[in-house]
Design goal:
HSP40/DNAj peptide-binding domain, 11 strands, DnaJ_domain_CS, 348 residues, signal, DnaJ-B11-like, elongated, unfolded protein binding, four-stranded mixed sheet, 3 domains, chaperone, Helix Hairpins, alpha+beta
Amino acid sequence: MERRRTTLLLLFLIFLFSLSVYSLGSKSYYDVLQVPKGASEDQIKRSYRKLALKYHPDKNPGNDEANRKFAEINNAYEVLTDKEKRSIYDRSGEEGLKQHAAGGGGRAGGMNIQDIFNNFFGGGGRAEEEEDKIPQGDDLIVELHASLEDLYMGGSLKVWREKNVIKPAPGKRRCNCRNEVYHRQVAPGMFQQMTEQVCDQCQNVKYEREGYFITVDIEKGMLDGQEVVFYEDGEPIIDGEAGDLKFRIQTAPHDRFRREGNDLHTTVTISLIQALVGFEKTIQHLDEHVVEIGSKGITKPKEVRKFRGEGMPLHLSNKKGDVYVTYEVLFPKSLTGDQKTKLNTVLS
């Protein structure tokens, strides 16, 4: 009982902390809950449940970082499960929520943190017990090679998915097995405690292989290693929750640009005359807009010039990286005697 009181007090203090730091810094509420912006309420609830179990104070005693994340998760969940607040947040961000609260349109943190846990964990925030009750299938991670064009402008890929699906089968099976304790009298005034496994009878099931297309949305500026998650679309498990299907982004090779983080690198070849007297030249970007890369001065072989703000968009930001152009100078294969004489006259 004392431990439960301590836990509830800690939850309350964390909740107050989440209200005092209402802004989540550079992370959006969707990032905190690890869901896409268009996530359904069911997706948000499932992701919240997994993250809340992971960072619950009972499982992370003395871990300040876990407690901070736990507060962020609850704050984000409270906003994204309220239709009005989510709509305001999508339009105007955190500043819009603050103005809404200041104008009497609702109070920040309107959902009590204990109420949130009552919905998921039966009232006491007993995360470990709840987690033990629900078996979970394996997560499936797929490396997805996305084109630079899709990563620059945003896009989508259709992926064929085959997986095992649980289907009804003839007959019954043992299910929902649990250990029940009872007492047996072995002598007058003497009892022995016994444990017996008790199971229900459920419809039998079988695995069948099914295939279908999945549309994977590629967001602008996604980096290698970021994941697009399809919750509970991983490996199924009987009498439990399926794992998650995760597409891990990798940048596909490109014929003109090479990506390094948020920057792009490309190589442009110019003639020796252009290198000496200057030139006018353009390159076509990933969205087909034109970037002027000409020069009025001398360009040295292997010289690198930066074009600010012409790189990859930063994920979930209006900012962009830079483009770095490396110049290769094309020298003539041979010179005539007259050309050599003229060059000596000009350059000496």
